[in-house]
Design goal:
Membrane topology: Multi-pass membrane protein
Number of domains: 1
Number of helices: 11
Strand content: under 5%
Number of strands: 0
Protein name: Type II secretion system protein GspF domain-containing protein
Shape: elongated
Transmembrane segments: 100-117, 123-143, 263-292
Helix content: over 70%
Distance between the termini: 76 Å
Keywords: Cell membrane, Membrane, Transmembrane, Transmembrane helix
Radius of gyration: 27 Å
Oligomer: single chain
Structural class: mainly alpha
Domain Type II secretion system protein GspF: 50-110, 224-287
């Protein structure tokens, strides 16, 4: 990405266009990442690069300084990265516990075999054992799906909170009117990642930053916030750029606190799949076959 932007700048081409093109190429045969990787199209890393491209485009079109906005964007990206690290930490404990519980059935089966009980035969070659094995596998699959859903729900929704407010502040700082600034920001946020054909799984022409005007996940909250801030600046006689930057900073603080809350909550909610699915699966695979084997041996002896 950085190399492509540097080459584009040396040639005098649009750096924003170069960044969007690189994002569109990710996951294609000529790209440097596999689809679904951390930089694949549609990932939050790719969306962060698209946010940077939009900021660069607005600054170039409006003639406004870009350095301050880049610093604030970098701060927002660091907050999102820290959130994902917090989520990984919250997930580490339940994952380690689940792995340990998964090993316990093997220990139980081996212990039963050593003691002379036919636990392996009971589990794999009898109807009750196969029922337990199928039920345990289904519960473990359900636990994996449940964990994945909880982690996805806790991840950051927006790679650059307050982006539209920040971009509007840049455009206004360039000296244009508020209406022209908003049109400029909408145009920058709705530009496709790559003109031309893109393979399935990549960002297609016409796709935009999710959650921004024109995007497939469009919500009007950001545009409403921009309109309210501009209206307030007119009523109070305060420069709109400063109010927009303050509102963008408030969005970032809110996103940061919400992310911390979700990460803290995740550490607790991940215990639900462990108790509801993983532990019953252990009982079905590790304990029930041993009990059935003991009972069958007792009945046979009598």
């Amino acid at each position: 990405m950085i190399e492509a932007a540097a080459h584009s700048g040396q040639r005098g081409d649009s750096i924003a266009r170069a960044l969007r093109a690189e994002v569109g190429l990710l996951g294609t045969p000529g790209g440097r990442q596999e689809p679904g990787g951390p930089d694949a199209p549609g990932s939050q890393t790719a969306q962060a690069w698209l946010s940077l491209a939009a900021a660069w485009q607005v600054a170039t079109d409006s003639g406004a300084p870009l350095a301050a906005c880049l610093r604030r964007l970098a701060e927002a990206f660091r907050d999102i990265a820290q959130l994902h690290r917090d989520l990984s930490v919250a997930l580490a404990g339940p994952r380690a516990t689940a792995r340990m519980v998964l090993l316990l059935p093997l220990v139980g089966l081996l212990l039963g075999s050593v003691l002379g009980f036919k636990t392996l035969h009971t589990l794999f070659l009898t109807v009750p054992g196969l029922v337990c094995l199928g039920g345990g596998a289904a519960l473990m699959f359900l636990a994996g799906q449940w964990n994945g859903h909880l982690v996805r729900a806790a991840r950051a929704r927006d790679p650059a909170p307050g982006l539209e407010l920040e971009l509007t502040a840049i455009a206004v700082a360039g000296g244009g009117s508020a209406e022209h600034a908003r049109e400029m920001v909408r145009a920058a946020l709705s530009r496709p990642a790559l003109p031309g054909a893109v393979l399935p799984g990549a960002v297609r022409p016409g796709s935009t930053l999710p959650g921004h005007p024109g995007g497939p996940g469009h919500v009007s909250d950001a545009s409403d916030d921009v309109a309210e801030v501009i209206a307030l600046s007119r009523r109070a006689g305060v420069p709109a750029a400063e109010l927009l930057r303050s509102a963008a900073e408030q969005c970032r603080r809110t996103a940061r606190s919400e992310g911390q809350r979700r990460a803290a909550t995740l550490g607790v909610t991940l215990m639900m799949p462990l108790g509801v699915c993983v532990l019953p699966a252990f009982m079905l695979v590790g304990v029930v076959p041993l009990l059935v084997s003991v009972l069958s041996s007792t009945v046979t002896t009598q």
